[in-house]
Amino acid sequence: MSKAKAAPPPGCTLNINDPQVQEAAIRIQASYRGHRSRKELREKGPPKILQELKDVVLVEGSAAKLECRVSAFPDPFIVWYKDGKELKDGPKYRYVFEDPDFVALVVRDGVLADLGKYTVTIKNPFGQTSGSACILVEVPAKVSKGPDYMKAKRGTTVVLKAEISGEPPPDVAWLKDGDDIEEDDRVFFDIGDTNTILTIKNAKLSDAGKYEVFVENSLGTDQSFARVDIL
């Protein structure tokens, strides 16, 4: 014997001929079509960068992170470059994909050579886009290799050379026996990007002594010493 169907609870019946019901149905269908259209546009659209990359400062020995917010459906193919050269995901450079729309590059173990322009390309089947920013590296002033001990004869030219580094580029000073050297045509020094050279022409017995090269920038100081004997 078949069971009689239970009547729906009060208020749960719909009259499809009711104009309000028909209007609600039209709104639901329109909303669904709009959602479907938006979804389709998102899926078929080329990548867009919604938040640009920004320059970052990397302190020597630490890590830096470049990131941007993107919109790309389907999921894009990401490649990072430094000064036009592709960077491989690995121990030094790490590709990061953060939910929901952020892509990032982490640069580890910062050194001065990491200074440069970084570019990300974002590509899917419907197109591609790219963005760029710079990593600015800060390195404490350092005397990488100090001057060597020198022994020279009177009347000869003495040259003391030191290798230096630092970003911002350091200020450089040379001292003799603790006092700043006052340059003239006979005793003077030059400062390059990676070295500094002190020249002493027509060496005299009074030029013998303890020489110091001193470097300084906003992140630190360093110095190195060498003895000069004049025979």
UniProtKB/TrEMBL annotation:
Subcellular location: Cytoplasm
Annotated ranges, domain Ig-like: 47-138, 140-229
Family stated for the protein in its record: Belongs to the protein kinase superfamily. CAMK Ser/Thr protein kinase family.
Protein name in the entry: SPEG neighbor
Superkingdom of origin organism: Eukaryota
Subcellular location, principal: cytoplasm
Keywords for this protein: Cytoplasm, Disulfide bond, Immunoglobulin domain, Repeat
Keyword Aminoacyl-tRNA synthetase: no
GO CC, alphabetical: sarcomere
InterPro entries found in the cross-reference section: Ig-like_dom, Ig-like_dom_sf, Ig-like_fold, Ig_I-set, Ig_sub, Ig_sub2, IQ_motif_EF-hand-BS
